[in-house]
Specification:
16-stranded parallel barrel, 30 strands, mainly beta, about 0% helix
Amino acid sequence: MKLSGSDRLSGGNIDDTIVSSGSTKIEGDFSCDGFRSSGSLRGEGNLIVRGDVKSTGSFRIVGALHGDGNAKFSGSTTIGEEIDIKGALENSGSLRVGNKVDALQGMKFSGSTKIDGSLNSEGTIEIDGSTTVKDSIKANSVFIGTQTYFGVKKRSKHPYKVFGNIFASNDVEIINTFVQGDVRGRNVKIGKRTEVSGKVYYIDNIEVDPKATLVYEPIQITED
């Protein structure tokens, strides 16, 4: 179903993929097979997508976003409540989420991101660009700031902020990051200009840059 002008959809279900290139408003909860938007989208309820979600324009939903596929955002995106994606989530634009973000197959943030809840994935979480997470991060592996730090002469202090814990089943590598809580992983690397207020736990290996600040000495633990 293609929408190219100024359109209004009532809440309900459509067994089709929505392709919007104009200005679209959705009133109430809405479900569809897929959603692609290159224009302006405003949703007043929850959006349930049985396939992929892709937006390159302005994408704003008052409620939650639930998807069975992947989600990719490169414009300005605001989700009032949670994001729950069974695939992978990628953002290279401006993303604001009012609650937690769950993406089963991984996340990659390279734009400006603010999450007012936690990040959870069974895959890898990669964060670059200015990012604030108000709760904890839990994933298979977590990499923060590792792609954009090298070769950049001037950076703001702590462009990556995590006001909870970082827990990974395998690798944790963080650079130029403030962590209010604990950090835990199998192999942990604390890079330059990183500050951890909580404790750092590792199973196999630990590497701490001399320019990092840790309140406590790292603690080696055994695998649960």
